[in-house]
Sequence to fold (363 residues):
Amino acid sequence: MKKMKAVMFAVCFAAITMCGCGSQKSGTSEPASSGAAPTGAAAEEKKEAKAEGPTAEKPMVLKFGNSSAPDKLISVEMENFCANVTERTGGAVVCEWYPASQLGNGTAQIEAIMADNQGGTATALDSYSTWCNDLNILSVPFLFRTSEESLEFMASEKGQAMLASLAEDANLKVLNYEFIRLPRVLISTEDITHPENLKGKKFRVANIPLQAKMFEYWGGSVNQLGFSEYPEALMQGVVNAGETSSEAFSTSKFHLYAPYIAEVNFQYPMDCIVMSNSKFEALNSEQQKIILECAQEAADDYNKKCYPEFEAYRPTMIEEGAIFLDIDRDEWIENTKGFYEQLKNENFFDDPGLLDYVMEMRK
Fold:
């Protein structure tokens, strides 16, 4: 009798234990949407959908835009890039091109990409420093002495980590950053041969935090304006000084309103093509390869034409009243050393050793 009771007790205990495990597994303490990777049929279905990507019957339409004039070299290259991607993907990825702020100013377009409301854009790489603070390193005056040094930094572990951060944290996939623009120069309505001539000037700045700090260091006030608003702001006196890469003169005609040009070459900027990271990930591997190849081809063609086109235009600028100032670049570099100390003291960069890291690379 006692043996029978013991057996019955053991059976009941086992049943209770099994019920307890079952309720814990299906309860709210471990929800199905905990972020674990799908398994079985669900995983295969997701993998198959990823591999397929968009098709000509169900294409992905990507609107690319910028703030530059349609005939500016970067706009011409972007128009070709869009046409090439559309053709080579057989219409599965349809890229449309909208220059001259048709999709909004530069910042608005970047924010639209982040929200998946726009396909992509083409603009300066340091324009993304608002969303990745350490990219401001590209805007530190005289830190990079050549375009090659800027490219070398971006290829480094720290540079690549910044691009990964943009993709993961801001949904901004950099397709190519090798559009090597001409160095940035200073322009003004008055003589700016020496750094002290910048005091009291009203500078136009882009949405680049470090750029504003730089002009304030040089004694000016700043006004953040879109690139398409820049010429009119000079005409109306809203600003009377600023910066530009030299290739912009032919289309934006800055020298007609601010004829004094100091070729201090304080930065070596690079343009880049950026698109929505989530849309890029939705492409299959072949489509991703095509879009990256088209971006590289656009950059290579841009680099062949950019410098020669400006030098061919320089005599026209002089005929139209441009005054290229005779400057001592070493004087400007020496003047900027205090700015480096200011950035360190303010802990401006998220990575406190970033400035020293770049200076060590230069050695």
